């Protein structure tokens, strides 16, 4: 099976061909140019799909369908994009219909955090669970939630923004309108902002540099990691108390340094989730790594095709 997979983020777009076992066969990527027309972006995506298919099937073949994971709110039933702060001109674009018109293949769309959760649940660590969450901690915090074996969606199919629940009402203002959201307190940029504000001459500019320096015992970097770990811990403890899933998988850039954060996260869960069987909730690094977006997008097409049949 040749499933077209498309991952649209604020800085990068990727597209490729994934098989029915969740293996990415061929893929390509290019920077997202949110200032250009959405029609151009769709042409570029269709081109990447066409080239990937030609490479995956040198003797010729067709795409069985296309799954799309896209950042921000999406109207999954209509196949249109919602408002995203950094791609305002793309709002309302009927991206599934546009891709189908060019490629001839049926297309479905989900929010990228939901797509990633579907991929990790079907083909990664979450396989076999009924209640599963994927938390992606990178430049933001995205969460997708599978409840009773189905992707959870809110009213009108909305994607709940669990990365924007408050962990500190006295924290800084977030673009969502809230103060001290999980994302604004515990993401990579949050750690960088704190380090810069507390040590403007500091040598460590990126979250990864801070993690490396913390491993070597540099006090400022240790402080930044400790603070981030505390807020991560509060968020994870909230998820354990609210949902008590079988598993919470953790993906994104920060998972490279998970051993720095995990002791505090574990302690926070153990000391604050006393009313639920927290010891049965497995919190573990995700398995998909850099391919999460494309694998998840392929699973979007599979799961939506199954929904359509039932
Ligand atoms: Zn927020």
Main sheet: which strands, in order across? 3-2-1-4-7
Order of helices and strands: EEEHEEEHEHEEEHHHHEHEH
**Shape descriptor:** globular
Strand content: 15-25%
Describe the main β-sheet briefly.
5 strands, mixed
Question: Helix and strand layout, with pairings?
Answer:
Elements: E1 3-8, E2 12-18, E3 24-31, H1 38-56, E4 65-70, E5 74-75, E6 80-81, H2 95-103, E7 107-111, H3 112-123, E8 132-137, E9 141-147, E10 150-151, H4 182-186, H5 188-198, H6 207-215, H7 219-243, E11 247-251, H8 258-272, E12 282-285, H9 292-309
Parallel strand pairs: 1-4, 4-7, 8-11, 11-12
Antiparallel strand pairs: 1-2, 2-3, 5-6, 8-9, 9-10
The chain binds zinc ion.
Account of the 3D structure:
By secondary structure, the protein is α/β, with parallel strands linked by helices. It contains nine helices and twelve strands. Strands 3-2-1-4-7 form a five-stranded mixed β-sheet. A five-stranded mixed β-sheet has the order 10-9-8-11-12. Strands 5-6 form a two-stranded antiparallel sheet. Helix 7 packs across helix 8. The radius of gyration is 20 Å and the shape is globular. The two termini are 21 Å apart. Bound molecules: zinc ion (ZN).
């Amino acid at each position: 099976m040749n499933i077209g997979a498309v991952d649209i983020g604020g800085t990068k777009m990727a597209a490729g061909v994934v098989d029915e076992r969740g293996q990415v066969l061929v893929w390509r990527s290019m920077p997202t140019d949110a200032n250009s027309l959405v029609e151009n972006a769709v042409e570029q995506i269709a081109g990447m799909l066409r080239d990937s298919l030609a490479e995956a099937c040198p003797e010729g073949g067709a795409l069985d369908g296309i799954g799309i994971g896209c950042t921000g709110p999406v109207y999954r039933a209509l196949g249109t994009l919602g408002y995203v702060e950094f791609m305002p001109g793309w709002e309302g674009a009927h991206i599934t219909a546009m891709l189908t018109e060019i490629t001839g293949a049926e297309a479905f769309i989900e929010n990228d955090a939901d797509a990633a959760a579907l991929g990790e649940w079907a083909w990664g660590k979450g396989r076999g669970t009924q209640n599963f969450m994927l938390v992606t901690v990178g430049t933001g915090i995205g969460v997708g939630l599978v409840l009773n074996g189905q992707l959870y969606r809110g009213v009108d199919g909305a994607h709940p923004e669990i990365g924007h629940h408050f962990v500190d009402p006295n924290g800084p203002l977030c673009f969502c309108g809230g103060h001290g959201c999980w994302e604004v307190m515990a993401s990579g940029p949050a750690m960088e902002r704190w380090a810069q504000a507390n040590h403007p001459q500091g040598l460590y500019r990126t979250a990864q540099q801070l993690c490396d320096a913390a491993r070597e015992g540099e006090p400022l970097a240790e402080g930044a990691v400790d603070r981030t770990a505390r807020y991560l811990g509060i968020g994870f403890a909230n998820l354990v108390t609210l949902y008590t899933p079988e598993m919470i998988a953790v993906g994104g850039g920060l998972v490279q340094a998970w051993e720095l954060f995990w002791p505090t996260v574990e302690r926070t869960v153990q000391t604050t989730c006393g009313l639920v069987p927290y010891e049965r909730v497995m919190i573990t690094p995700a398995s998909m790594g850099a391919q999460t977006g494309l694998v998840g997008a392929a699973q979007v097409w599979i799961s939506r095709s199954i929904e359509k049949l039932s």
